[in-house]
Amino acid sequence: MKTFSKEAGSERLRKISCALCGGSRFRRWNGSDSLFVKCFDCGLIFQNPQPVQVELVDRYDEEYFAYETENEKQFFNLMELGLADVDFDSIERSLPPQRSFLDIGCATGMLIARMKERGWREQGVEVCRPAAEFGMRERGLRISVGTLEEARFPEGAFDVVHCSHLIEHLTNPRGFLEEIRRILAPKGYFIVTTPNADGFQARLFGREWRSMIDDHMYLFTRRTLRRLIEDSGFRVVRGKTWGGLAVGTAAKPIKDFVDRTAKRLNFGDVMIYLCQRREESYGTERENGA
Hints:
The structure is a single chain. The protein is an alpha/beta fold. The protein is built from ten helices and 13 strands. The strands form three sheets. Strands 8-7-6-9-10-13-12 form a seven-stranded mixed beta sheet, sandwiched between helices. The protein has a four-stranded antiparallel beta sheet with strand order 2-3-4-11, with no helix packed on it. It has a two-stranded antiparallel ribbon with strand order 1-5. The longest helix is centred in the first third of the chain and has 24 residues, at 62-85.
């Protein structure tokens, strides 16, 4: 399953400081001509300079819609497996019947359609208008077209907010997490999935790692993502990684062994965190394998 990406066009570029620590000392990550830099002070990896967010949205057009519809069942299956890894069923059981679920970057809405079937009040956010309109028209779903900030949801509106392979596409991940905290109900949950820049595949393939693409503004490690999450007002409840080798890079017995090992030892290609909106009385829990 090929990762969707468009090469940088004529978007305006701007130099930025580190979104995690505010630092201004960087070195090129994975080669002198790499798009990505690594912060000397905290280790955050990101594009610098990078396009402005309002122009990045234009990349998610009819071509992206076609990619999403072609792969939506595979993406949906992976999201369900990720939710199982963080024991989402136990979260669901702990919430009252009138519960609400927001999926940011919901594409055609397959996940929120499933949540609607399970009794949740569903809501999606999607910048790709054709994908959002498909979900609204064909599946009868509530989807807001645009960014999370443009949706202007009320404070405390959702019990669970989910985003899968989205945060790495944003130019302001800290502001994004702060907005999620604002719209979460007290003790609400946030679930985020993103590539793992210190996983086995990233280390093995270097510049050829499949997540080193123009569309990814940030590449997080477990440490940098956790720090950003905690700095933005959440506590980490649980975390997992998965994915040892991509399909086609090794014989199946080897791939299966590396996949199992990567998940068991927590150096997979993709990571997921289950987080909870932090209140003053809450402490911090370590995720599995951290």
